[in-house]
Amino acid sequence: MLAIHCSLAHSGAWRGMGAALGDMATIHAFDLPCHGKSGDWDGQGVMHDTATAMALSVLEDIGAGPVDVMGHSFGATVALRLAIEQPDRVRSLVMYEPVYFAPVMADDPAFGPGYVRDTAPFDAALDAGDREGAARAFNMLWGNATDWSDIPKVTRDYMAARIHFIRDSSPFLIDDCANLLAPGRFEAAAMPALLLRGAGSPWAKPVSHAIARRLPDTTEISLEGVGHMGPITHPDVVAARVRSFLERV
């Protein structure tokens, strides 16, 4: 199984899920650009293209034949893109709260203005050069309501140093620069797909619905008592659903 982590994390974020899945899956994880031990993105082209190329390279290293692919948040958008652009390489697709906003923005004109309103504190801080303030605002939206002061300083510094990654993701997540919403493209991802989300996560339900209705074979599951960081905070709960899905497919 290829596993792709969320923004501001690193490949080690899958340790809990790996332990919970046990001997059912061998997890191959890598660090996204600017994360973990990977180098900084050079700013050339589109960052999501670079992340997807890295994931495809790991798929090729794993070997020939289709592979189960799993992603969390931003990583789930890379997993989805692989499934659409490289369907022969993906046996099944697991996504936990993909932050691919373009489909729901296309479906619901009211979603975009609400998103802009809710992310205004993040944008204002980043525009002002306040990287820690931007990371704090981002954490308020996506960090399971964890108080910023309760996060270890080394983690806060790690997030602040990479906070530009969030804005660098926008050409794909919001503007659909890869043109995945073009007619017929989602249909290429005909493999079984599992869409998981935390019941209390902001935006998760409409985004999940917008993606699910475009994929040919998708199961949606909402997890009570779990937030956006479910694969890290509740790996046993998330892994149980993934295990059941893999047994079925």
From TrEMBL:
Residues 3-240 form the AB hydrolase-1 domain. InterPro entries: AB_hydrolase_1 (IPR000073), AB_hydrolase_fold (IPR029058), Carboxylesterase_BioH (IPR050228). Keywords: Hydrolase. Pfam families: Abhydrolase_6 (PF12697). GO terms for molecular function: hydrolase activity. The keyword Hydrolase applies. It comes from the Bacteria. This is Alpha/beta fold hydrolase.
